[in-house]
Write the structure tokens for this entry.
Amino acid sequence: MNLMRNWIGSSSSSDVRQKVQILKNNWDWLSARECDVRTELENAEIQPGKKRRREVDVWLRHVTVKRTEVESISSEVEGQEFLLSKSELNGRIERASEEIKDLLHHGTFLNGLTLDDFRGKSVPLVLTDLIGERFKVNVDRILWWLTNREAFVIGVYGMGGVGKTTLLMNIHNKLLSDSTIFGHVYWVTVSQECSLYRLQHKIAEVVGIDLSAETDEKKRAGILRGRLAILGSTVLFLDDMWKHFLIDEVGIPLEADTCKIILTSRSLEICRRMGCNNESIIKVDTLPENEAQKLFIDRVESYERLSVNVKQIAELVIDGCGGLPLAIITVACSMRGVFEIHEWQNALVEIQKASNWHDDMDNNILLKLKVSYDRLNDRNLQLCFLSCVLYPEDYPIWRETLIELWIMEGLLDEVENRHDQVNKGHSIINKLENVCLLQSVAGSELSDSDGCVGMHDLIRDMAIFITHDNPRFIVKAGMHLEEVPGEENWTEDLVKVSLTGNKIQEIPCQMSPRCSNLSVLFLQNNPLKKIPHAFFMHMTSLTLLDLSATGIETLPDSVSDLESLRLLMLRFCAELVYVPSLSKLTKLKVLNLYGTKIDEAPMGIEGLSYLEEISCGWKPSHLNAFNRYIECQQFRQLRYYGFWLREPGEDFEGPSRISNKEVVISGHVFKEGVLTPLLPYDIQYLQIDDCDITAGASLGSAIPSLCDAMELKNLHIRECKGLEYISSHSNSISLPSILTPLGTVEYLELFGLCGALWYIFSSQNVHNRKLFNNQEVISHQYGKTAAIPPISRIHQSQRM
């Protein structure tokens, strides 16, 4: 260490310390700005409908990194433990000072720290009309209680399917339409397996705040209480409560002018333990005979066309539904367009069987609902419906996701063309909605106008009831399990298993279930660390395997023998470093390795002739293999691909899935002697991060195959050293060759470019003037956004 100090004399030491002092002074200004930004964020984010801009997060991360660097330099100089040469240390100090000034400059945030977040905005819920005078009376009672300063918690209870949720949804929409009653109205579906932590998260989500960074339940409660208190008059609907929670522990401030709760439960005791007094509790009863008959006639639609004999049977069917609105609706919908007396007699027999099930009221209800399932009269349609239970309770399922599931399962194989399969899938969903086995959740904050479907919890219970026998499923999704079901449950007749969203950390090392008929296995969203080799040995019919968002580090070699596999999902397995050869998986259609540590394509993908979707990484040293794959026949059959080319272990953002065909190149060196990746001819999205490009080079000369990318729509460039031109040009009149494809580009982002970008496009020759006139060309540095002016103001010599 003494030798390392010899280079610096007293005068040199004084010079270094002076520069360090300047550095620290600059840091003090930046640190003060950081504190102000964080304080402003705390005040802003508590307002409804606001969230921080992403550029603010980027800036804060850069400041945090710079703090560590300043502390390192200061301690090194003060301790005289110089590990660098004089010139290197001086250069490091000067660079740090300049970067701090840059951060100060970009910390002004002219567009503000936050933007509107409509996730917290309440919207009307999709509902059915209320039936009967009792419902209307209950609506009036609840609205009156809301104006009563002494009633803070209102409870609605009754048996499943009796109409509790429908009652509250009507009140929710009425409050939204008249803001003079209450200023803010929020809906939360609680569900059977909801924990305190999960309930806090759901409430936070609808009121527009993020609690994901805070694990302490008491602190989470404090944050929630503060948010709800500042909102003012608020009604919080808590639907489908199965257990009580202490209001203070949740973080709900119950005051006359602040927050009130309306909840539904099947249990009177839950209502009482949640704080409802006897005066603020409503029991929802089954419908009287006349209202039950009216509801059935409305829903069956063709009642007047029935013969006299059939109407007599229909009346008995109505009686068999026991006044339960859900049973009446599902049975009526299943009998639409049915006029043949024998079919009505058969429906009556099934209803009467269910009514005779006196031992268990729940099973009595489920068997009545099962009539609508039996009435589907199409085994494939029934199997499509049963697959919906693989998702957790109250889970909104995207229509596209459901259709993809059915396609991967082979339930739509009778239709050869994929476009026709998708159309067939939508047709099936519509049929299931028409008979009330699925319901649209459109209009909620979770979906667009027609994006998602869901299942009433009793319909889901009915489906699970069916799958206890034939076909046999194990469905334990979102139930906080810490262990997989015992091996005795994995029988030969088992066909589908869903254990998603639990707390399973390991599978017993000797577990080797003998279930050769198992076709679907969902284990995603579990803290699972390891899967034993023997686990998959006898799953010879496995078609879908989803291990996404687990903690596994390696995929067992036994996966290589799952020759029936069509889908292998390993998304966000952040610790995954090994996948065995896939050469035998000749039926594989979807392979997703996004968000893993896999940095090279698995062995055998070149021979997967049925592969339609792939997300995987490639080492730069394997670019020959990458280029060969891009040129092979198998590549041309892909409907979706997401490739990322990066150095092993490099932290980066992979494919965005904002388009169907994406490539991300990260940390690559573009220079003579280094193989250049070949871009696919049909690429739609290209992102280039932190690459080193020969000084003064254009993007077109660095990646020649870009000239053939005729379908490119999105181009993102971040932190690329040496890049000064998007395209080269010979004069201001001729059209650069690179502009031919880029004339179709709809969105161009340039993030933190090192050095000046001298030339984007010739202003006389840009085909896509919309690109500029809409100001969609954006330059970012440390999160600062600056829209490029309209094309008339762009000149070749203009620097960005």
